[in-house]
Specification:
Blueprint: H1 19-22, E1 29-34, E2 39-46, E3 53-61, H2 63-84
Amino acid sequence: MSDEPKTDETQQLQIQIDDDVAQGVYANLATVTHNPTEFVLDFIYVQPQQPRAKVRARVITSPQHIKRLLGALQENVARFEARFGPIKAEGGPESPVH
């Protein structure tokens, strides 16, 4: 056996997910805020014709990770549209992230 530390190429990340998290939550609005060290993404559910909305999930992450997430989202939207056609961004709570 070698005493050398494992490199990134030989290690595999095992990801676990709790059953309640695996169910997911529905959100039709998102807000993004940031400061010099982190980004905060709030995923919100707005009920039609209701004066209040509720944050369903909050993700706090680093600027470096948000940049990687942005790239992954752009790549996956392009794949989706190549397969299913353009996504129409329309007004209302479902409109682009604020």
